[in-house]
Amino acid sequence: MPLKNESRARNRGEAKRVLVVDDEADIRELLDLTLARMGLLADCVGSIAEARRMLAGQRYQLCLTDMRLPDGEGLELVRHIADTVVDLPVAVITAYGSAENAVSALKAGAFDYIAKPVSLDQLRGMVKSALELPGSDPAGDAAGGSGLLGDSPAIGQVRALIDRVARSQAPVHITGESGSGKELAARLIHSLGARRDRAFVPVNCGAIPESLMESEFFGYRKGAFTGANDDREGFFQMADGGTLFLDEVADLPLPMQVKLLRAIQEKRVRKLGAASEEIADVRIICATHQDLKTLVEQGRFRQDLFYRLNVIELRMPALRECRDDIPMLAQHILERLARAADVTPPPLAAAALEALQDYPFPGNVRELENVLERALALMAGDRIDVVDLNLAPSPLPGVVAATAGGSLQDHLDQVERQAVLDALKQSNNNRTAAARLLGVTFRSLRYRMARLGMNE
Fold it and tell me: What are φ and ψ of residue 79, in 5° steps?
């Protein structure tokens, strides 16, 4: 009966209540017992119609629903709750290995999913995460506002989406040019979500040698290979209960993409040298400045992994799209740099601000910070003027290079582009190795490639 827990509810008063929707009696009983041991009340029903009736007359803190029900799909209930019930997280129970159903549910607004046969450890972890979701309160708004500065419409849209995304456990794919703040957005999503008290583990996928990837991601047991003198945790274990941020995920080689896909789908990983798998309760946020759809078409990125990671897409705008925010950003960065140097932050001359707003900033906010740090260190007077910024001038239309029929900058860019292409070819497209061949840092190579438009 739907109201079988009514007497328990009266006895326990303030206990949180969960709506369980599943047409299998044994699954309902299992979930009911598990939730009861967690101190929660469960109203268990077997159809969408019964679930709607319960939702109309009772307030719940969580809903668990099967994907296939006698009178419809669980997605119908997910969408109904998203449209009619404020702040009710919904988790879906899917058939084993049904990745498509799980992704569809997350896109429809589900908080998380769990596969059959139901793992009670995973279930308990998911329930705890759902019930700890922060509400929309001034503290949360302040946290979002202090981390992502700007009043432009583009930044406002990003901030609003971050607030919504933080309440979900769905994977997030953050896109945007180098230096546009993708990791900052990932950290904000983590800090505003239910996992905020657990670890945020950032990983630069392009900086890990391919031979070490599996051990770095999944860890290893002592004696698993030569040099494995102790047990070691991998990124998944370090992020357990928290968020794993995969920066430059497009740089993962195809064999590692297969292993990553399985770990995300099954929520389990196996250390090198281990006999059994262990639960990996992590939220995945990834970022790249490359076009993953194009890489999928080229066969360089797995389509199934793309659909798993790209449940929610968040695009970070380029700095040139937020020119009105540059004065505020510049002032904030200068104050931070001045505090670190233990000096008084100098004012920016009006001409300097105008020059900053006119500059295209191919390196985005990271380049703005570098420009201001250099100006603070080398300025000649008591304020930062245009000359102190040392911005690269735009090519003059009448100046051409005799050897190339274009501007001098065009000629230099062509030479630099060819040098990068040669290094990438020599290193089999391993950017870390290419950077070493060119005598620059990995970050410097990424910046140069972005500036030269070589990331498509």
Answer: -70, -40
